[in-house]
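Table S2 (text version). Query chain:
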Amino acid sequence: MIQLHLEKTKIDVGRAAARRGAGAIRRAIAARGEANIVVATGASQFEMLSELTAMAIDWSKVTAFHLDEYIGMPGDHPASFRRYLRERFASRLPQLRAMHYINGDAPDLKEEIFRLNHLIAAAPLDVVFAGIGENAHLAFNDPPADFDTIDPYIVVRLDARCRAQQFGDV
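Corresponding structure-token output:
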């Protein structure tokens, strides 16, 4: 009984997040003719992404950014966040204006981070769809967070608890 209630709560929260986010996307499109969003991965995003991708939004005016990725992981690996977002988000939205993935196995990681930071700096963000991890991490920024960085994309070192949670979500 408790498990069923928790599953229903996750579904309700995911739907509510998708509805609120969709509203913000539509308002941005109405105001500027485009919207820029960040999408995350993990079990907390399953329902939200499913609901969001089924909504009536002019996706041809939406640019999406990938929140985080493992360094050195190929994009087709089962734990790759690129793969997750291709399967659960981008493949459901063929009319999406752009999807900027993090190439975690780029030959030059500094250049990849520069590329992403340049792209996102030119795009005012309208919605960030992100969950908070079990240890209060946001993306891969584990507590204690780095509040001094000004770059949107950085390399971080995952603590053992975060690594364990990430592998549990696969």
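Notes on Table S2: Residues 2-168 form a domain with the Rossmann fold fold (CATH 3.40.50.1360). Residues 48 and 66 are 15 Å apart (CA to CA).
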